[in-house]
Design goal:
By secondary structure, the chain is an alpha/beta fold. It has one domain: Spore Coat Polysaccharide Biosynthesis Protein SpsA, Chain A. About 30% of the residues lie in helices and about 20% in strands. α1 links the parallel β1 and β2. The chain is globular and about 45 Å long. The relative contact order is 0.18.
């Protein structure tokens, strides 16, 4: 059993270093790739860097090509990291028990107890079904990547690419529900979004997400394989 982890970096270097340290600490046997998506100042030690921001989809696909030989693959934002050992084992166990090949770290309430945009979850034992994912950390099997490929570059720099990936996995029969996670997964992670502790590194986010939403609506039924090489 092998695990490959992609950590996406765009500025926020101090947070990125903490993220990498914790993935190494709590996933010591994993192969970790760090990709710098056009940071203003190059991130030291990145395995791959683009001179200009290419966005989540294209950047993630660039690294998938280096990790698709692993049994399990993780793609994480640089403000989200595990806080305890055994987190990978819990995801793998859920996969073996349910046949689910793709998970998206999600929560219904933020750290301060406030509701998270009306998200609803249903507990099915080894897996929880969500009405909408959070997308700060994606966990998938090798079969998932080999079946639907990478992320849709049509989303541009950011917005809805992770949601559409989950839907494509569901449409392709790789998950029992549209948006899945393991029970209480957020208890094993620190997430800047969950805690509202870190500002986004994306500029013009409103405009980017507006364009991405239009593309998302056109691809709701997609189960296409998207070449990531």
């Amino acid at each position: 059993m092998s695990v490959g982890i992609v950590i996406l970096v765009h500025n926020r270097h101090k947070v990125s270093k903490i993220c990498i340290e914790n993935y190494k600490k709590f996933t010591p046997d994993a192969q970790i790739f760090v990709v710098d998506d056009g940071s203003d100042i190059p991130f030291p030690g990145a395995d791959y860097r683009s001179s200009k921001p290419k966005g989540v989809a294209k950047t993630s696909n660039r690294l998938l090509a280096n990790l698709d030989h692993h049994d399990y693959i993780v793609i994480a934002n640089n403000d989200c990291w595990p806080t305890e050992h055994g987190w990978v084992d819990r995801y793998i166990y859920s996969h073996l028990q349910t046949g689910c090949h793709h998970y998206s770290l999600s929560w219904t309430h933020r750290y301060d107890g406030t509701e998270n945009a009306g998200r609803i979850k249903v507990n099915h034992g080894f897996i929880e079904e969500y009405s909408w994912p959070c997308g700060v950390m994606l966990f998938m099997t090798n079969q998932c990547v080999k079946t639907i490929g990478g992320f849709d570059p049509g989303f541009g720099r950011a917005g809805h690419e992770h949601v559409q990936y989950s839907l494509r996995a569901f449409n392709a029969g790789l998950t029992p529900y549209k948006f899945c996670d393991i029970p209480s997964a957020i208890d094993m992670f620190y997430s800047g979004d969950h805690r509202r502790s870190i500002k986004t590194s994306i500029t013009n986010k409103k405009d980017l997400f507006s364009k991405a939403r239009m593309h998302f609506k056109k691809t709701l039924d997609s189960k296409d394989f998207i070449n990531y090489r």
